[in-house]
Amino acid sequence: MNISFENPDKINGQLTLTIEKEDYEKDVEKQLKDYRKKANMPGFRPGMVPMGLIKRQYGEAVKVDVINKLIGEKLYGYVRDNKIQMLGEPLPNEEKQKPVDFKADGPFEFVFDIAVAPEFKAELGEGDTVDYYDIEVDDELVNRQVDMFASRAGHYDKVEDYDPAKNDMLKGDLRELGPDGNAKEDGVVVEGAVLMPEYIKVEEQKNLFDGAKLGSVITFNPKKAYPENDAEITSLLKIDKEKAATMESDFTYLVTEISRFVKAEVNQELFDNVFGKDEVKSEEEFRQKISEGIKAQLATDSDYKFLLDVRKYMEDKVGELQFPDAMLKRVMLKNNEDRGQKFVDDNYAASIVELKWHLIKEQLVADNGIKVDDNDVKNVAKETARIQFAQYGMANVPDEYIEKYASDMLKERKNVDSLVDRAVDVKLIEALKGKVKLNKKSISLDDFNKMMQEK
User: Fold this and answer.
1) Residues 170, 112: one domain?
2) Are 140 and 160 found together in one domain?
3) What positions does the domain Trigger factor ribosome-binding bacterial occupy (predicted)?
4) How many CB atoms neighbour CB 126 within 10 A?
5) What pLDDT, on a 0 to 100 scale, did the predictor assign at position 395?
6) For 69-108, what is each residue's pLDDT tens digit?
7) 394-403 burial string, b = 16+ CB within 10 Å, else e?
8) What average pLDDT does the segment 321-337 reach?
9) Same domain, 316 and 439
10) Pairs from 229-235 (Cβ < 8 Å, separation ≥ 24)
11) Domain interval for residue 186
């Protein structure tokens, strides 16, 4: 077997692989013998089919299979051993690859085009300065979190008078009216219909509920109240969407219940509910604990922004890179055959931007000795679980639930790849923060969010 590689312009490689009969014949013979042992043909006992018959029936297919496997092993082995940074996958050369007659004994020549990554050096050190945003945890931010916890632990009280300022929820009986203003025979009737007037889109209809009390009867028109939301009408009147689209009738609404939402008091019961029994003993400790939690969550956002800024800084520092565009477009088309050439034309430029950062990041990871193991990935999964629970106001989730949630995430292959990437990012961020000069900037959360949205 002979392998040669040409790479005159450094980014377009051509690998030629020549396979002789002696390279494949032993494996072909072995596989055919295995076929013979298992062959079940009329007129022959199992394992006694003549080898000539086996060869005629399976010989060429087995040879093709063995040679293809040999090509893959030798090609990728050569790339690995010679440290060729191949992009994508090798493809047969469209000009030099001649038709292969597998009926012959060989030699067989295969010519592959290979896209090679451009050569460059990505380095970061003390002489490099990158912005780092410290998001301020002020009283307003803590107040918002306290209010969220109080709201989540709140409850509804029954009251007798509707107050639109307090976002009261009404419960009552709906009856469809006919053109004469009386209850329509065989009209829509809904008992125990729940309604929150504050969410009615049209002020004229919303104001009809002002001053409502238990026992009040309000006449309103659902179509006028929700002119652009048939789904709301479908839900309220318990009718299908086709009927909701043509529903023009007025309805009476007999108020049978008024519920007012009351936030939980900021007291020991709330402290225990959020952080566990007796973990916090005062409002001051409660606010301090909340502040620490917010700061830990925001540090993740700051780190993410830092990595984005590192990316921009390094892309500018590395400058323009030359890629084997024609070859990469062929690879992209092969991987997206169902989407066609237009998909490649529309998305190639963006893919090159991502490829450039991928190559830069690979070097930064290697230069900083970043390696992740199963434990690192598991820790990222657990942290992701904690953040997701925290978003729902659950700051005191027992470790066994976090552990189970993380384990369930890791059972999904689609999750594992992103968690591995995240684990790499976590270690890379920490390494780079200790390597470059940080231009620290304090910023409010609102301004930080605005900045991220603009990007």
Assistant:
1) no
2) no
3) 1-147
4) 8
5) 65
6) 999 999 999 999 999 999 999 999 999 999 999 888 879 9
7) ebebeeeebe
8) 94
9) yes
10) 229/201
11) 155-262
